[in-house]
């Protein structure tokens, strides 16, 4: 089990810049070692700002994007052209500006029924890695104020799934499906990187990093068992009450 590595900054903007630099560093390292860089992306408004930053000339010229394979840690079960689609958000923020080749983008096919979409995506990942171990070079993650990450939500059956796979999750309170990588799959990542900022996330950060184990209420604790490095990119308001040093 890896100990979390905390990167704490004064502002959200400084946190985003630090994670963008970390993204570039990880990409260069992976490409130098294996010739390719595999990254699992997260959705939401915070990562959108990261992707927009990576698409700027300052960052885009620092990575050989033709050697990057993009996956999604989770996806909302909505049509591909729906405003809530994670893939559509990343397409507009990152893929289109950088003209990422279609063959480098591995998105969830939400035109299929939820369980089929999940199984097909799991197979897509297996096909991409073939005989190699399924280990993404970098997995980007967010944290909800209810301590969910990817689409591992409190009190959902997927929290107890032990397969290295992708599953459909039904959220009864929202009456919607999500498609998510399971915790065992996420835990295989070489590097996991959370992007969390804002005072509203402080309680969840404290619970996940420092609280007693309570998977049902704090699902992100499942990723304490990651095999690789676990990095947290945080601003100061998100870590009030947590003991840290800068």
Q: Find the count of extended strands (DSSP E, 2+ residues).
A: 9
Tell me the fraction of residues in β-strands, as a range.
15-25%
Number of helical regions = 7
Order of adjacent strands in the largest pleated sheet: 1-9-8-5-2-3
Order of helices and strands: EHEHHEEHHEEEHEHE
Assembly of the depicted chains: single chain
Structural class: alpha/beta
Largest sheet: 6 strands, parallel
Distance between the termini: 23 Å
- Number of structural units classed as domains: 1
Just name the CATH architecture. Answer: 3-Layer(aba) Sandwich
Summarize this structure as a short list of keywords or feature phrases.
6-stranded parallel sheet, alpha/beta, 3-stranded antiparallel sheet, globular, 246 residues, 20% strand, Rossmann fold
Question: Could you characterize what this model shows?
Answer:
The structure is a single chain. By secondary structure, the protein is of the alpha/beta class. It has a single domain (4-239), classed as Rossmann fold (3-Layer(aba) Sandwich). The chain has helices at residues 12-34, 45-54, 57-60, 86-98, 114-129, 183-186, 202-210, and strands at residues 4-9, 37-41, 68-72, 74-76, 138-141, 166-171, 176-181, 191-196, 229-235. The longest helix has 23 residues, at 12-34. It is globular. The mean pLDDT is 94.
Strand and helix map with partners:
Blueprint: E1 4-9, H1 12-34, E2 37-41, H2 45-54, H3 57-60, E3 68-72, E4 74-76, H4 86-98, H5 114-129, E5 138-141, E6 166-171, E7 176-181, H6 183-186, E8 191-196, H7 202-210, E9 229-235
Parallel strand pairs: 1-9, 2-3, 2-5, 5-8, 8-9
Antiparallel strand pairs: 4-7, 6-7
Helix pairs in contact: 1-2, 2-4
């Amino acid at each position: 089990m890896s100990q979390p590595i905390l990167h704490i900054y004064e502002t959200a903007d400084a946190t985003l810049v630090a994670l963008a630099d970390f993204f570039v560093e990880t990409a260069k390292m992976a490409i130098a070692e294996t010739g390719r860089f595999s990254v699992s992306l997260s959705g939401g408004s915070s990562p959108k700002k990261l992707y927009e930053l990576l698409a700027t000339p300052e960052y885009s010229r620092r990575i050989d994007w033709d050697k990057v394979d993009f996956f999604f840690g989770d996806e909302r079960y909505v049509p591909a052209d729906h405003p809530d689609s994670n893939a559509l958000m990343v397409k507009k923020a990152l893929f289109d500006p950088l003209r990422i080749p279609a063959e480098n983008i591995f998105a969830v096919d939400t035109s299929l029924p939820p369980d089929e979409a999940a199984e097909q995506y799991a197979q897509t990942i297996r096909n991409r890695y073939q005989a190699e171990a399924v280990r993404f070079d970098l997995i980007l993650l967010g944290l909800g104020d209810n301590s969910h990450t990817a689409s591992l939500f409190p009190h959902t059956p997927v929290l107890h799934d032990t397969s290295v796979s992708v599953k459909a999750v039904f959220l009864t309170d929202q009456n919607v499906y999500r498609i998510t990588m399971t915790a065992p799959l996420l835990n295989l990542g070489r590097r996991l990187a959370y992007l969390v900022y804002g005072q509203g996330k402080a309680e969840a950060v404290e619970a996940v990093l420092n609280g007693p184990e309570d998977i049902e209420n704090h699902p992100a604790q499942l990723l304490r068992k990651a095999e690789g490095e676990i990095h947290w990119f945080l601003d100061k308001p998100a870590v009030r009450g947590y003991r840290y040093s800068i």
